[in-house]
Write a structure and sequence with these properties.
With 223 residues, this protein is α+β, with helices and mostly antiparallel strands. The protein is globular. The protein has 6 helices and 9 strands; from the N terminus they run H-H-E-E-E-H-E-H-E-H-E-E-E-E-H.
Length: 223
């Protein structure tokens, strides 16, 4: 009996290896590719969504915008056409979560620096304070690459509408005027069709790693 197994030991090993390879190939073929959800307003915490869009269940997209960046250049949706981008809301005088968020945006910038398909967009929630000159100073201090990352200011109502009606990422304040808002730590991942595909805690390193991984998923989806 031992001589029999010894004689066919080589063939048994080969058969085992081939079986493992075949099973692995079949698993790879049958395993579905991971996809990201498309976020609609009715899927998001109502505190972050304007009441006028909370009922929307499909076809939600980021609205067109016209803002001004740290170089005084007009920035519109056209600048982000056919791009995946990460958006957030901040203000330059914030001393709490903003420095952490900006640091993580800088990390994302470095990790996608050579990727022409990915851009960044940070909106000031205090546009009257955050002038072009102030944004430029902040951009230089934080290491913003102008080709990759826009810090934008502009009309307060437009930014309010973008935050709460498009990106679904800011709480309404209401104490200082109709368009006051409280920005959150959310980073928002937007696909090339202007749809929201993910929300991430901009103060959490693990979420940043997940965001980078999800960008890769989106790029595979486009192909």
């Amino acid at each position: 009996m031992l001589q029999f197994f010894s004689k066919y030991k080589f063939f048994a090993v080969v058969l085992f290896v081939l079986s493992a390879i075949i099973i692995s190939i079949i698993y790879s073929i049958l395993k579905p590719n991971r996809t990201l959800p498309v976020y609609e307003p009715d899927m998001v915490n109502t505190e972050l969504v304007d009441t006028t869009v909370q009922y929307i269940r499909k076809y939600h997209k980021i609205s067109d915008f016209r803002l001004t960046n740290q170089n005084g250049k007009e920035v519109t949706q056209q600048d982000y056409k056919d791009k995946i981008y990460v958006a957030d809301f901040f203000f330059t005088t914030c001393q709490t979560i903003c420095p952490i968020m900006t640091g993580h945006m800088k990390e994302i910038q470095e990790r996608v620096l050579d990727d022409d398909e990915v851009l960044l967009l940070s909106h000031s929630v205090t546009p009257k304070i955050d002038s072009v000159a102030r944004l430029k100073k902040y951009a230089i201090e934080k290491g913003v690459n102008d080709e990759k990352w826009n810090l934008v200011t502009g009309d307060k109502k437009q930014i309010y509408d973008l935050a709460r009606k498009s990106y679904l990422a800011a709480k309404s304040d209401g104490d200082g005027g109709p368009y006051d808002m409280v920005h959150t730590e959310n980073f928002i991942l937007v696909d090339k069709q202007k749809r929201i595909r993910g929300f991430y805690d901009g103060t959490n390193s693990e979420d940043i790693d997940q965001l980078i991984e999800d960008i890769t998923v989106l790029k595979k989806e486009d192909k």
